[in-house]
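Aim 2, interim progress. The first record below pairs a target sequence with its C-alpha cells.
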Amino acid sequence: MYTSGKYSSRGPALIPRMKTKHRIYYITLFSVVLLGLIATGMFQFWPHSIESTADWTLDKRSVHDAPLIRLPVSSPIPERGDLSCRMHTCFDVYRCGYNPKNRIKVYIYPLQRFVDELGVPISSTGLSREYNDLLSAISDSDFYTDDITRACLFIPSIDVLNQNSLRIRETAQALAMLPRWDKGMNHLLFNMLPGGPPDYNTALDVPRDRALLAGGGFSTWTYRQGYDVSIPVYSPLSADVEQPEKQPGPRRYFILSSQTAIHREYRAELERLKEENGEALLLLDKCSNLSQGAASARKRCYKGQVYDYPQILQESSFCVVLRGARLGQAALSDVLQAGCVPVILADSYILPFSEVLDWKRASVVIPEEKLSEMYTILKSIPHRQVEEMQRQAHWFWEAYFSSMKAIGLTTLQIINDRIYPYAARTYEQWNNPPVVKWSSVNSPLFLPLIPPRAPGFTAVVLTYDRVESLFRVITEISKVPSLAKLLVVWNNQNKSPPEESLWPKIGVPLKVVRTKENKLSNRFFPYDEIETEAVLAIDDDIIMLTSDELQFGYEYFNYLYTYKMPGDIKNWVDAHMNCEDIAMNFLVANITGKAPIKVTPRKKFKCPECTAIDGLSLDQTHMVERSECINKFASVFGTMPLKVVEHRADPVLYKDDFPEKLKSFPNIGSL
C-alpha cells in the first residue's frame, strides 16, 4: 500500500494504491477541469460594456459555427427610415391574429456571420454580451416562437446596439437580406448608442425601412410616437456592483453631480452653484491621478478626495443627469439604482419607456437653460414627496432597467399592449410598486380582446331630418385621412332618408341605419357595421370642425355606454333628449380616472340652418336640464368623476411661423 504522511492515520484503510499510468491520467484530467473552471470564471467577471462574446445561448452553439454570408456590393439597401410610420400604417397587426392569451409571438432569426466580398465583417465586435443576453431572455419568454409562420414580430440576430461598431451600409444590406424583411414590416431593432461624431444623430443611422426601433437616445425630432420604443442605455455596473437598498429619506448631500466629460459651460454653471450652496452640492469629476482602467472608471474625485462610484450616488437626495454627446446616458440607470432622484437636463430627450411610465413620480425634468435655478427648484419640493420619488426611482430601475432581460421584455410588453389594447396593462400596473394597493376601477374586460377588424375610425352621424346640414358634415368628415367608414344613424321614424343618388359621393363606404325609436342613445349603440376600434360620434349640425381637427383627436367607449352605464342614466337621457354627451364623459372619466384631452382652440357653435323648432340646444330649458343632469349623474355614480383639466393638446408647429405645407394639421383654426 502506498500512502503519504498526510494520510498515515486513516489513509491506508481507505485509499488503494494507484498504478502510475492511472495516476497520471487523473492528474491530467483534474488539471484540464481546473483550467476550464478558471477560464470560465475569468470570462464571467471580465469587464464588459456592449462588447463581443463567443457564447450564443439561443441556439446553444458558438458564434464561430454560424454560417458565413457574403454580401455582394450590389446588394439592395433599405430606405433610410420613414418618419411618418405609425402602427396603423407600417405595422401589419393582422399577422398577430387572435390568440386566447392576447400575446404576440416573436421570432428571432438564426445567427449568421455577414461579411463583405473581401471577407470583412459588418461589425468590429460581432455579437455583444448584452445583445446575447437580450436574445436569450426573449427566447426563454412566453413571447418566443421558433415557427416563423406564426410570428407577429421579427428580431434580427444582427447586433446594432452600438452604432460605433457597425459598418452602416453593410449592416443595412444584411438587414435587407433577411427572408421576411419586407421593407422592415413587423421587424424590431434594438439600439442603445446611436449616431457618431461629430453630430451624433439621436436615432440609429443604419437605413432600416419601416422597422420599429427600440432606441436609447431618441429626441422629439426622431422619435415616432406610438411606433418606436424609447429604451434606457444599459449600465454594466448594474450587474457588476451590488448595492444594499437604502431606505428613502434625507441624505448626506442634497445634490450630486458625478458625470465625467460634462460640457464646459455646464461644468462652469455647476461650479457656480457649488460656490453659492457649499456642502449641499457635491461636484465630482474623473480622477486625474489614477491609472486608466476598469478600477478608475468606478472612482470619482473632488479636490483630491476619491469617492467610490456608483456607491456615492446613495449619499444624495438628487443626482444630476446632464446630456452628453448623446441624449441617452447610462448614468440615469446608475442613479435610479441608487434610489437617488434624477434631475434630468436634456432638452427634447424622450425618457425611457415614457409611453407607459409616469416620470413625474420618479424624476425632476428641468430645461437646460434653467440649470442656474436648479437648487431653488429642488428646494421647493416637499420632503415627503422627495421620499416617494426616491422609492419610485429605485423601483423603476428594479422593474425596467436592471438587466437586458428587463429592458427587452418591457419593450415587447409595450408593443403587445398596442396590439391588444383591451388586454393591456393599466397605468397602475406599470407605475405602482407591487406592495402598493390601489382601489381603481378595473379595465372593461367584456370588450373584445382582439385587434380591430379594420384600421382608421368610423364616423357615426346622428341625424333626424336636417339633410342640408347632414350632407355638409358628411362632405367635411370624408376629407379626414383616417376615416374608414361613415355610418349615418337616421333617427326619424316618420320620414325616409334621401334617395341614394342624392347623397354626397365620398371615398369610403357610407351606410344608413334606420332606428326603431327616436333616442339620443342611438348614437352610442355598437352597430355591427362598426369594424374599427376608434369611433367618432358627431351630430348632423357640427359643421364648424375641419378635417384636420377631426384627424387630430377622437375616440369613444360605445360598448360601455350601451351595456354598462350605471343606474337609469341612459333611460333619463332618452326621456329628456339631453345630456348624452355629459353621460359619456362621466362614464369615461370614471373608468379611466383621467380628465378629457382638450384638442384645438375653442369655437363658437354655428348652425345657420338651425331654427328654434328643430334645434334641441335652442330650447330655453335645454341648459337648465344640463345642470340638473350633472347632479343626477353624480348621485348615480356616487361621486363626481369629472376631472378639471388645464391642458390642451395642439399639433406640433401649430402657432409657429412656418409654411403651411410643413405642418401636419394646417387647418386647425385660430384662437
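The second target in this work package is listed in the same format:
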Amino acid sequence: MTPHEPAVFFLSLKVHLWLWVMDFLQHIPNHRRTGHYTLQQNQNAQHGEKYSPSAMSKTSGTDPSSLPGTSSVASPSSQHSSSPKPGSSPRHSPNTRSRPQPTCQRCNSQDSLDELEMDDYWKEVENITRSGDGAGRGEGGGEGEGESQEEEQQKFPEEGEQEEAWLTEAGLARLFDDSLAADQDQEEDSAVFLSTLTRTQAAAVERRVTSLQQTLLRRRNRQHLPDVRDIFRSPEKDGEPHKLKEGSENGQKDPSSAEIETELNVEVAFSEQALTNRDNHQRLKVTNSLNSPDDKLPNFKLLRDKTGQTKIGDLSPLDMKKVLRFVLVEMTALFDTAGIDLKTHKPVKVKTRESGLFGVPLSTLLDQDQRRAPGTKVPFVLQRLINHIEEEGLDTEGLLRIPGAATRVKSLCQELESCFYEGTFPWQQLKQHDAASLLKLFIRELPHPLLTVEHLNTFIAVNKFPTKKQQLQALHLLVLLLPEANRDTLKALVEFFQRVIDHQAKNKMTLNNVSVVMAPNIFMFKGFRSKVTEQQEFSMATSTANIVRLLIRYQNLLWTIPKFIMNQVRRQNMESQRKQNKERAVRKLLKKITTDRPSDKAVPEESSQGFIRVHAPQFSKVSMAVQLTEELQAADVLTRFLSQDSSVTVKNEELCLYEIGGNIKERCLDGETYMKDLFQLNPTAEWVIKVVQR
C-alpha cells in the first residue's frame, strides 16, 4: 500500500458518509426539520415507561411492533426504516427514493391502526406542509388580515395561576379570594355545590385549594386564607382521610374482565369507578396480551335509564351552567385518580380576521351567520361544504384522503371568500376531492384549534388511561367542557365522518383511514409553534389518530350528560330551594300565604290518583290529564296529545315534552323516558308540551 492510499481511502469514506447524511435528510418531512408541529407532548418522560410510546400503543389498541414510534426506539437502523418519509408517497415526492411497501394490503379492520394506515397520516402532514396554509386568505380573500396572523409559543400558566383559574371556572373563587367572602349568595352557592360532591371530586377541589394556598403564602405571605380543613369534612365514618391512597378499594374483579365489559355505568361518578378499579387496571396492564391481532373497540352502550337520557341542548342555560361546573371537577378528579398530571395552556391573543370564511374565529363566523339565520349552530360554509360532498356522492374512492390540486384549492378558497354569501360560487364545478380539501383547510385555518387551546393537550392525555372504557369516560367529560360553538361544530364533523365510513365498501375509507387522515387537520393549527422530538412526534401521531377514532366511534354517547351529573344538579337545586324556603318561611307565615287556602295547582290531587296534568299553552288544547302506568313513555304522551288535537299541524318529532320545576329548571325529555319513574324522581314538576328547535 502506498503512503497516499490511506488518505484516499478515508477521503472516499467521508464522501460516502456525507452523501448518506444528505440522502437521509431528504427523507425527513419539512415539518420535522423546522419543528413546525403545533402540539406539545404531555411530558411523557415524567411518567417513565408507563407513558412511553410503547405504553401508548397498549392503550390505543395497537400492536407495538406495527407502530413507527415503538420501532424507532429499537435501534438507529430500525428508526430510519420506519420514519415517516415523503418517499413513501412517490406521488407527492417525485425526487425522493421510495421505500419498499409492506406486503400487507390496506387494512379493512375498524379496530387497530396498522403501519400502512399511519402512512396516510404522514402523507396528510406532508400535504398540509406543501399546501402553505393561509396563503389564500389574504389574496383575494377580502381584507387580508390573515397574512398578519401571529404564531406564538404556547404559554403555560405561572405558578398558582392554573389552580386559581380552575377554581374560578368551577365557581369556587370564594375559597381563595377573601374579597368574595362577604357575598352571601356566592358563599351559599359554593357551600351547596361542595355538599353535593363525591369523595374523589372533593379531593380534587381540596388538592387545588391546598396547592394555591401554599403558592399564595409563599408569594404574598398572606395569613387569612380559608383553612382547607374548615371547608371539607371527611365523608368516611371510619376516619379515613380524603387523600386518595394507592391500592384497591372494595369490589375486586377479574382484571381480564375490564375491557370485555361493554356496558357503561353512568349512575356512578367515573372517578369513583376508577378509584374502585385502580388496582385491577394496574394488573391489566401487565397481563393484557400485546400480541392480539384483533384489539377491537368495545361496543359500549349505556345502561338503560328509565328516567330518560339527557342530551346536550335538552337543559336550560341555568342548569347547563351547573352541569359544566360538575363536569370540570369530575374530569379533574378522574385524571387525578389515574395519576395523570394535566398541564393546561393559557389562551393567547392571536391576530385574527374580523370577517370572511377562512382563518376567522368560530364565534365571529356564527355571529355573522346568525344575523342571516337566527339559531345557526354550525358555520354556513362548513354546512355547505359537507352538503356538497354528500350530494356528489360518498362512494368516491379515497374521499378525504386524496387531496385536491394545491393551486386549484387555493384559487377556490379565494373565490369562496368573495362569492359565498352572494350566492354566486359555482358549486356545480367544484370537484369532490377539492371540496374535501377545502373542508380540511377550514378546520386547520381556525385561529384557535377546534378542541381549544386549553383542552388540546388534555385530549391527547386521554390515551394515558389504561382501558378504552376510561378513555371514553375522560373523552365524554372533555366534549362536554368544550365551548358550545366548538362542540356543535365538532358534532357536525364527526357525524359527517361516520356517513363517509358508512360507504367504506366503495370509498375504501374505514374508521381508521378517516381517523389518521383527519387527526393532523384537527390537532395541527397555525396559532402556535413548539418543537417536539421525533419520538414524541411518532407517539403524537398514533395518539391523535386514536382520539379522532374514539370521537367518531362513540359519538352517540359523547354528546349526552351522564346521569350522575344530572343527579348532582338535581341535588344542588333541591338544596338551594331548601335554603331559600327557610329564608321565606317567616315571610310566608306573616303573610299567611298558601296555608289558609288550597293551591291553585291541581297536580298534587291528580297525582295522588295516578294522573299527571300535561299542559300545552302553545296550542288550542291547553292541557290534558294522563294516567301514569308502568309502560307510559314521553313519546306516548305526545302521540296521545296529537290524536286529541286535530288543529296541531306540527309533526311529532317537532314537539317535546318538558319537565319543568321541582329539582330541575327545564329539561326536554327523551322519547323513551318512563313517566312514572321520572314522576317519582321529581314529583313537584310540571309537564309542558312545546315546539322545539332541533
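The chain has 29 helices and eleven strands. This observation will shape the mutagenesis plan for the next reporting period.
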